[in-house]
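HTH gntR-type domain-containing protein, pasting as requested.
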Amino acid sequence: MKYQNLQDYLLKEIVTNSLNAGDKLPSVRNLATKFSYSKNTVIKAMNELEKNHIVYSIPQKGYFVTEDSQPQKIKSNKIDFLTAGPDLSFFSFDNLTHCSNQILANHQKEILSYGQPQGMTSLRKQILNYFQDNQVFTSLERIMITSGAQQAINILMNMPFPNGRENILVEQPTYSGILQAAKLTNRTILGIDISQNSIDFQRLEYLFKNNSIKFFYVMPRFQNPLGHSYTKKEQQKIVALANKYDVYIVEDDFLGDLDPDKKRDPLFSAVPSGRVIYLKSFSKVFLPSLRLAAVIVPTNFIDTFLEYKSYLDSYTSTISQEVLATFMANGMFKVHLKQIKKIYTQKMADLVSYGHKYLPDNVQLNDPRSGFYTSLILPRNINATILTQKLAAKNVLVDDVDHMFLPYQKSSSIIRISISQVDQKQIENGMKIIAQTIAEYDTTLSPFSRNFHM
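Structure tokens follow.
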């Protein structure tokens, strides 16, 4: 069709930099004359380009090239095992557009008004139902909406607890955000080693008993950065010790939605009355730009939690809350979770399979079954920081987890691998390169003890 030919011509002009961002396109009249097309044909081509955000129009002035019109000219050859955000290539932007239009049509007052410190009732009701589907049973009044999980952690770290204690216990390694928050607020933070995918319960009891622990921050499923999950028996022991020594547990279940084991429940399910504070971020499994998390706090925490929350930002973005609430109400969130759970589970299975195929025998690879992260525990003679640099030089990006340890517990033998945004077709080659680089680094290894062929 004529309008498609004109559209292709203009796209080519943009791609080849004949037309750059901000440039004005030839007028409708000039294009019609140049190609012997009718003005309606030219306008139709322009409308298609505008619909796809390639150009924009200014009344009485014409059409202009948008800032983000340039496509990626050179496809990156990097294998990205580093980025930890959700893979948005599987996200339905049509559903987002539909929900946004629905919100603008039906909830104008709500999104333009001040919000409630506790969060919008409509969203909290949707999350209550969502929690119940995941074996997390609570009451509506206990659910708080925060501007991301980090805000919830900051509030809990700084607000007083009924046990009157101040010290925080974390896994080692752990989410770097809590370490940074403790550093900036001069909080005493202690660690317990789980780098071998197990926890020393005698050590845990000693720390609970002798160190005035306010709460234990723990990720029981798909831990960041190791990918480790606790068994049901281990979960029960943690809860029993917390009850014995009056220690609260902050359970960060940020990837629990991806768990293929339907029999593995969160810690909160064992003691829903208040010993466990349940934290659920929507940044990894939905949209990080919304900055949304939900927290279940004990009933006697509500007033204090809201006081500290109000001090930080009064209320969380009402527009973000409406988007998530509408996605959930329309059933789109459940469909989205089902899709990404399948994708991430398969990616992780591929990575573990290729890891077992290519990695040297003295490199320990965790097998999380799903989630975003797994980790490699390296021989002591291989420094993770140097290995990370060597891999980056070969366009394979991984994360040295040194920054996820407390200063006195640092380890130089662990790298984190994230499968969230790596192209599934690149996983095998990425694991080959990692195995090859480890063998080149460690001359004591036989060149590839498993069936390695480049």
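Note for the archive: Residues 332-358 form the longest helix (27 residues).
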